[in-house]
């Protein structure tokens, strides 16, 4: 390797002019009978030879015989980046050596003189021909961008960052940009931003580079023009409803849905003068009647629904709603973007609790809504006012989780489908709710609009509340928890987990019986899960 005319700033030169490298025991090439050299201290010296122009004409690294193996083992173990290649590959300054402080120039001269006496042997690497001074400048941050700073305190705040980092990365993973605000170099740049001639996020609540990657990934998967990602699924639902339904407006929703969504529709929206018609998921006639009687702004439903996994004919209801000027939003959380493409079926918007299958690791809260640029922009405008911003670290977890989404969902689809058949045939199970079963009321609809039926199965065991508790407590693999869609299997008893504050009669009104179980299958082996469920069923036989 060759490096020429490399100019080092004084602090950088002092750091890299010489470093010690103690080798491991070296047995290679040792003559027979000769005692191996153990723990020898070999100095690796970067020596500078100055040319007449004051620049660096060559750079010598003297490596011990064991250096390559030592570097690859020890350095890889102890640090994330090895700087030797960067020392070789980068020009460190724009200025000639004549611009150095006298002490630095003297140090360079002494190093050059000392290096002249070093013989070049097999363990010496001569590095010549440094890259052009106009290319990447590692020392530039110190030299020019912070030259106006005089104290170490100010330098620690601004060095390497002030006036822009120009971060360009070839890292495989998406960087996490942890910032609450974005700066403008000059006032004119701010004015250009305000007048839409310059692009920036301006403030963390309005966007983040890491978050944008997550949004674009979801948009591509849903076939959407735009996606807005928020702090939770409920945040996405509530902001969407408030943004698209005017005061005094009317919506239509379905009986089976996430309870917190129902609470928002029944208790919060009326405060804004917004009323709702609630229909059975399969009641298309009921939907048509509501559309004829009211000026309906939005039809909002889950498909499949929670917890009975009812399915709405998305294509049919979309055509019906659009004929009346009504928007359609489908919560596709249980389906995932892989099993169902709601936008392609005619819906205007599709919403997900990304906490579930999209994130997929039970370690992040997020929600997203996808659709046309026009509709998502309306929702985004209100979102910027209300907040509910997703942390960029959470956005990174969503990005990471999505990389294995297809693998996880494929496994979960398969396990849930096979277990639904096993459960339906078991004498201790009264009923199974799963759209992949022919016994499901919307099985034919599910077959038309879904490519997989999801990783959640709901079922009723043959017994009362205490019998069901006994079954749940006998399970060894799943966690008793209130979520679904992650790598770990999760089980819950909705009567306790979600409706325990209601009386038995009130729970029954929503179809929530004491023996109902919702089982979210993770990515564990099918046979392990099957054996666990069967042994738990045996405890209530």
Automatic annotation (TrEMBL):
Keywords: Amino-acid biosynthesis, Methionine biosynthesis, Pyridoxal phosphate
Pathway stated in the Swiss-Prot or TrEMBL entry: Amino-acid biosynthesis; L-methionine biosynthesis via de novo pathway; L-cystathionine from O-succinyl-L-homoserine: step 1/1
EC category name: transferase
Cofactor(s) it depends on: pyridoxal 5'-phosphate
Gene Ontology BP annotations: methionine biosynthetic process; transsulfuration
Record field: catalytic activity: O-phospho-L-homoserine + L-cysteine = L,L-cystathionine + phosphate; O-succinyl-L-homoserine + L-cysteine = L,L-cystathionine + succinate + H(+)
Coiled coil ranges: none
GO molecular function: cystathionine gamma-synthase activity; pyridoxal phosphate binding
InterPro entries reported for this sequence: CGS1/2, Cys/Met-Metab_PyrdxlP-dep_enz, Cys_met_metab_PP, PyrdxlP-dep_Trfase, PyrdxlP-dep_Trfase_major, PyrdxlP-dep_Trfase_small
UniProt KW Amino-acid biosynthesis keyword: yes
Keyword Amino-acid biosynthesis: yes
One GO cellular component term noted in the UniProt record for this chain: chloroplast
EC number(s) on file: 2.5.1.160
UniProt similarity note: Belongs to the trans-sulfuration enzymes family.
Protein name (database record): plant cystathionine gamma-synthase
Organism, scientific name: Gossypium stocksii
